[in-house]
Amino acid sequence: MSTPHHLTDLTGTPFLAVTLLAAVLAVLVPLAVWGRVRGPRAVRAGVRLGMVVVAQVSAVLVVFVAVNDQYGLYDSWGDLLGTESHVAAAPDLGADGTGGRDISAAPRVRQAFSPVTGDPDIGPGLRLTHLKGALSGAEGEVYVWLPPQYGEAKYKNTDFPVVELLAGYPGSARDWWGNLDVQTQLEPMMEHGEVTPFILVSPRTTLLPGKDTGCANVPGTVNADTWLSVDVRKMVTDTFRARKDADGWAVAGFSAGAHCAAKLAIEHPDRYRAAIGFSGYNDPAAEPDSIAAHDARLRRTTNPLWILTHARRPPRTSLYLTGEPKDGYDDGLALQRAAQPPTRVTVLPSTGGHRVTVWRPLVPAAFRWLSGVVGGPMGAESSTGKVKASQSGATPVSATGSSRA
After folding, report:
1. Where do the domains of the chain lie?
2. Distance (Å, rounded) from C-alpha 78 to C-alpha 177?
3. Which of 33, 249, 349, 356 has an alpha carbon within 20 to 30 A of 99's alpha carbon?
4. Residue 269: which of 243, 295, 251 has the closest Cα?
5. Distance of alpha carbon 142 from alpha carbon 112, whole angstroms
6. C-alpha torsion 305→177→397→129, nearest 10
7. Is the pTM of this model over 0.85?
8. Alpha carbons 243 and 230: distance in angstroms, whole number
9. Distance from C-alpha of 222 to C-alpha of 138, rounded to nearest angstrom
10. Which residue stretches does the UniProt record annotate as biased composition, category Polar residues (predicted)?
11. What is the pLDDT of residues 8-64, one digit of tens each?
12. Which residues fall within 8 angstroms of residue 46, CB to CB, at 6 or more apart?
């Protein structure tokens, strides 16, 4: 079964084409009937005013849809209107986000995926599923792209490393594909051996209407951390030939997603060996809609710099951070100054502003760096062990071997 792009979807060429056609008609129809309007003067004036208003609204709508399509701000009408929650429950899962459970002993989560078709904006090879997080209580779409080597016979018993791709806020799980062209940039590089053949995974990060989760766990509100670092991770390792050890996992993000990537990698070195962040920030209050921005304790404890400086021991993880002064670069330098081995932080300046057109060309260099940090494909028999508990004494979160695609 395929997943087509519908005319009513907020993102994609079809809806943009419909709104553009409506805007053109909103101009042409008044030109054709302006002098034919009949009735008393007040009626004629009202009808003509209404046509002008419709034309203006249509023009504004075209601009909004074009900008939304380019930047992936809102993925659905529910996201735009602030009426759609992706949280069914948010139990208290403790400091490590597992609720004290051994995730490796949990039932397998072998998910069915459909190929994404009819959406030329996000490129080829994507598959999509809707995941209900068994532990986090969150749910949403998850896109997966498999590297070209995945289907080759000589790799049939091989597990591949994984990179989780996180969007900004507001944002869509489509953004890395539609705006940063991640798979179309990396596929030829993987084929030529320039970068490691990674499985790329892009889960929904906007889980609450009108709020940025900051990838945090907040009992009673949302378990965004567990959704990303446990539920999505387990689904991928249960469904695909994916490595389960932390050396085979990384997380990447831009803007609010970069904040999340740094937070997850520093907080969970038992789950991620590295993070890439484009134009991120440390203080969650940099995003006014963050659920942590207005809570002093959350604002402190979800700050990657605070997590790093208060870790029981320096986490074994590596960060690759870019940005301009006051837009990611300074915060990256703060992390770099605070880092002690084995934590490693690479910070590079960028120019051009806070936009996808700046981040898109940064992808190849970032993934070249990542290829030197995260392990490559591994024989399945070597990738079935449990991940070590986190430095805070967390329960292992990786699943043991299973029959996978």
Report:
1. 13-68, 91-382
2. 21
3. 249
4. 251
5. 11
6. 140
7. no
8. 14
9. 7
10. 381-405
11. 455 556 666 777 777 787 777 787 788 788 888 888 787 888 878 887 787 777 666
12. none
- The span from the first CA to the last CA of the chain, in angstroms, equals 17
Q: What does the pLDDT look like over 121-138, one tens digit per residue?
A: 787 899 999 999 999 999
Peptide bond just before 284 cis, omega within 30 deg: no
Residue bearing tokens 């203080």: 283
pLDDT tens digits for range 296-337: 999 999 999 999 999 999 999 999 999 999 999 999 999 999
CA separation for the pair 114, 91 (Å, rounded): 30
Could you please state the CATH topology (level 3) that the domain comprising 91-382 is classified under: Rossmann fold (3.40.50)
CB 290 within 8 A of CB 342: no
- In terms of Cα–Cα distance, which of 203, 220, 230 is closest to 291? 220
Report whether pLDDT(165) > 90. Answer: yes
Q: Is 289 helix (H, G, I), strand (E, B) or coil?
A: coil
As a whole number of angstroms, the distance between CA 362 and CA 176 comes to: 12
